[in-house]
Amino acid sequence: MIDFIVRRLIAIIPVLTVVAILVFLMLRLTPGDPAAVIAGDNATSDQIADIRTKLGLNEPIWTQFVIWIGNMLQGNFGESFFFKKTVAELIAQRIEPTLALAVCTLIFAVSISVPIGVLAAYRQGSLVDRVVMGFSVVGFSVPGFVIGYCLIYVFAIELGWLPVQGYIRIGVNFWGFLERMILPSLTLSVGFIALISRITRASVLEVLNEDYIRTARAKGLSNRVVLMRHALRNAAVPILTVIGLGIAILIGGAVVTESVFGLPGLGRLTVEAVLSRDFPTIQAVILMFSVVYVVVNLLIDISYTLFDPRIRY
Amino acid sequence: MKQVMRRTLGAMAAGAILAAGVATVSGPALAQGKVLKFVQNGNLTILDPIWTTAYVTRNHGYFIYDTLFASDENNVVKPQMVDKYEVSGDKLTWTFTLRDGLEWHDGTPVTSEDCIASIKRWGARDAMGQKLMDFVKDYKAVDAKTFQMILKEPYGLVLDSLGKPSSQVPFMMPKKVAETDPFKQIDSQIGSGPFIYVNAESKPGEKHVYNKNPKYKPRSEPASGLAGGKVVKVDRVEIIEMPDPQQQVNAIAAGEIDVIEQPPHDLIPILKKEKGVTLFNWNPLGHQFIIRFNWLQPPFNNPKVRQAALLSMRQEDYLKATVGEPEYYKVCTAAFICGTPNAFDAPDGLLVKPNFEKAKALLKEAGYDGTPVVLMQSTTLPVLTNVAPVTKALLEQGGFKVDMQSMDWQTLVTRRTNKGPVGQGGWNVFHTFSVAADILNPIATSYMVANGDKAWFGWPTDPDMEKLRDAYAKETDPAKGKALAKAVQDRALETAQYGWIGQWYGPGAMRSNVTGWLKAPVPVMWNIEKK
């Protein structure tokens, strides 16, 4: 197992190298000049050229790359062209809302989707099954921002129970934090509930037809024990895979949800950086997302061994 | 199984009740006392108002910095940090004396040296400042509160330059800060203005916090425009970064924010119906749409082709397509904004009544070969998105073939720096808009500069225009200056240097318990009360 983890961690190096080269080159080859954005609408060509020089953007592209990689290897992610802050500071400021949103969304999504998926499988073909599958289709089909606006209209504007938008840090005011998390995480969880409940239903259905389930029932075990201990545990691998990918996607930033609910997370930081061509920020954030993807996938692979003893590394 | 499901559903219900309970106990919008929550048009990322011309950064500047002079509600320049000033008989030496009691936020006094360094840094970046610097021979700090600006020859726009209301504003900074390279961003946020920036609580992308400056000494005159007493009537202002305009409207309706700088025109009908919200046209001069031609590349390197394009323009088409409500726009053929001393009508219905037949005749005369002109359309600035399609339709009626290329604003601002042919990533025509306060005279208006490579994008070359602008700059008699401003406008229309295609207004929105928002070209937060 340790060998496997070490090998997987070492494999991150070539992945990150390729990502770094691609991100760096793509940013330089796509149209858009941060100096022109910084200078503003009234600036002249000469002023933009001066800013380009000060930012080091007139250096040959390979010189810029070597400088950037050299700094990265020393743990220096660089300074944002715009914010006058280091990229590490910016990410540190923005990571809490994104993590909070990811955790709340997963709590909502898993606590709802797994039970209703199991229920739908257990009652295959019944009204409950159809309702769950119908919800799943709607959850997939309706865009998140539509769900968000509907929830805001009902719970924030009409009923006035929850705030429309904004974020309060967990250490500042826990209840304020919690009430600002409910609508965005509900909004975001709808799609995940739809996805995970479908996967859960399909996996459990497959397992319920296995011989060992029949054997378990023949032994006189209760439905609860059969479902929870035998069926769900054996159906867990695909469910875990989907949940794991969901974690990676959520940490990558839920751009639309963060924008609609005014959450200052990594998704919005990425969009703002892309729109303003803030090269150091885009490069660092995308590298960070790559690391998150690789690490989350590794954790998912490790978690398989907890549910399926046949899997060994 | 039933039991399991019952437990699960029970837990979910309990969670929902708990969540609702929490919400009810703490309430959606906590009482905020004298905190004013303000949403601007765009995120504030750069905090140096000399380094960029971005309007959100200019607004930040007005919070924390002060100016030597400022324009009042009628656009008359009045002393602000300056107590008194005098000009020598030969009009070459200007002497400024600062008011008593001016202090930086760190408690040190504002000195002449600070002001001289600030003027120098601003003069290196701003177009109007650069023009002033052409005339400045030297500065002299007479004492801690008095300094002189010595000119090479008389200049008619000294006060207009130092009292320039919009980007880039000559804000006064401590000498140590103002000595930063004008092409590098400053590190410090210490000013002498009516608010203090709270760096520790400000988080870009989330909010920016400004506390009332308790030591600020406002002028005794009542506040008017950007001039007069800057009396702060709230304890703090928080700029909330909220990118979604629909959510801005929802948030002000729910009382979570107090002021929106400028909601999009399509959301104004919703705001009008909100009982707790008032709309206020804080910038009575408004804004102006611009069409800009590339003078370096065919076909707009030919004056007849440019004239044909101007003959095809109809302002009302643009204004209806972008603003909609006539209440918020004005057909105005004055380059320097209707309602100002330099407002002059364009002749022969130009820009208002298109003459497509004459345009086609001019194109034929110019030998236009029907090559499509590349029109860049910005799709990310809502107010500009609908402008380019109108131009395409009008130019096509005037005999042009048009290739409208859509892109985000950042791509557009990069591509417009390309002086090369269209085949090498160049362009022929694009649109932008200006705050009216930035274009009130021939020197402030960057679109009027016609010195080729050094001019604004499009790079017009017209020595006659430059002579007129110079004459305007040197003229100290207001009546003669006005005549020269008209000559500049006439010349711009004659050469079709660029087109001004409509004046429009964007009201702000505020909660009904908010009063005292001043009419000015900039949304300023002093004088505002929250009851």
Envelope shape of chain A:
globular
Q: Quickly count the helices of chain A.
A: 14
Quaternary: heterodimer
Largest interface: A-B, 64 and 73 residues
Q: How many independent structural domains of chain A?
A: 2
Q: By helix and strand content of chain B, what is the structural category?
A: alpha+beta
**% residues in beta strands of chain B:** 15-25%
Name the shape of chain B in a single word: globular
CATH architecture of the largest domain in chain A: Orthogonal Bundle
Q: Give the end-to-end Cα distance of chain A, rounded to a whole number of Å.
A: 5 Å
- In the predicted model, the low-confidence regions of chain A spanning at least 5 consecutive residues are none
**What about the largest sheet of chain B?**
7 strands, mixed
Compute the CA-based radius of gyration of chain B: 26 Å
Q: Helical content of chain A, roughly? A: over 70%
Radius of gyration of chain A: 24 Å
Number of helices of chain B: 16
The residue fraction in helices of chain B comes out at 25-40%
According to CATH, the fold-level topology of the largest domain in chain A is MetI-like fold
Brief write-up:
Chain A is mainly α.
Account of the protein in words:
The complex is a heterodimer of chains A (313) and B (531). Chain A has two domains: 20-73, no CATH class; 99-307, MetI-like fold (Orthogonal Bundle). Chain A has 14 helices and no strands. Chain A has helices spanning 2-29, 34-39, 45-55, 61-73, 87-122, 127-141, 144-158, 174-208, 211-218, 223-234, 236-251, 255-260, 266-276, 279-307. Chain A starts with a helix and ends in a 6-residue tail after the last helix. With 531 residues, chain B is α+β, with helices and mostly antiparallel strands. Chain B is 30% helix and 18% strand. Chain B contains 16 helices and 21 strands. In chain B, helix 3 crosses helix 4 (127-135). The longest helix of chain B has 25 residues, at 2-26. Residues 1-32 of chain B have low confidence and may be disordered. The chains are: A mainly alpha (313), B alpha+beta (531). Chains A and B meet through helix 2, helix 3, helix 5, helix 7 and helix 8 of A and helix 1, helix 7 and helix 14 of B.
